[in-house]
Amino acid sequence: MASDARRTLTVDEKFELIxxxxxxxxxxxxxxxxxxxxxxxxxxxxxxxxxxxAAYFVPSIKIAQFxxxxxxxxxxxxxxxxxxxxxKAPEATLEARAxxxxxxxxxxxxxxxxxxxxxxxxxxxxxxxxxxxxxxxLRLSKRVSVHDxxxxxxxxxxxxxxxxxxxxxxxxxxxxxxxxxxxxAEFGGIDQRKTFALANDTMTKAMGFKTRAHLMxxxxxxxxxxxxxxxxxxxxxxxxDEPATIQKKIAKAFCAPGRVEGNGILAFIQxxxxxxxxxxxxDGKSSMSVxxxxxxxxxxxxxxxxxxxxxxxxxxxxxxxxxxxxxxLSELTTGIRRCLTLIWNGSGLRQMLIASQRxxxxxxxxxxxxxxxxxx
Length: 376
Prior knowledge:
Distance between the termini: 65 Å
Number of helices: 16
Shape: globular
Strand content: 5-15%
Oligomer: single chain
């Protein structure tokens, strides 16, 4: 990373870098207080479900910024959470998926300049199956109502009918992750806000654990306008997509002229390409050089507000913006494709996953209304 020769950052500069491009931070005072005396310890967790895609560059960039600010970072591979979430990760696949996620996310982080020696990968199952964790989970279950637990997971757990017990266990385990990973803060998407709010309201009062800060990034719109999701091929760019495929997908992406809100192309510029330029810059400042419509010389943008203003004025057209993203993604994924192709084809993980993904006997639990109709 290009930050090695930079001067030492002040507390305010570290705080600004840590919170940059986040949508909300709960208890920012905790972050400031810690930064005044030592490095902030923070974790980001990801359930090992579908294959990581281009949207994973958003947390990868934030992790790189955390490290640049001197934070100690842990990446939680939440294998048991993947198992609890509507059985997206059947029990037989947990080991193969955890290996694949660790190597995939490692490749993503290296692509944005992260030295993997500066962070730690942790599997949830390494401590979530211990007697101590089970005891604390039982203690917590006496303090959190079923309503609050299910509400906390409502935006992050896939519903297949009436809520099941796993839907409530999922967020309570996440609350305990903060304690067992011994961190000051947790980072995640804004879709986890209800879980983070429950942690803020519960962990000190009910369990006697320290209160943590929570940072949330916005959900980056997909190529078709909604959330970028691994379950919707039209909404995402895969990490193994070749440059020609990336160009074709980006060319078809929703990108309304003059409209910034809900624009997945501009969101990728804001949350990936612009901060990536800052991470690579010797002076630590963002910059993007773009030849605008009817211009022959490039214009240098230093902030997303400048880029969005140019887009609203139709100086930066959808075609130019799409080319920026397609070229940027092609560059970022070059090393990832090479690394993941070797992992996927040469390590036996592909065979392990295919062999372990046979349908299991977990029929969908019918909703209460369906049961009543059947009975009546």
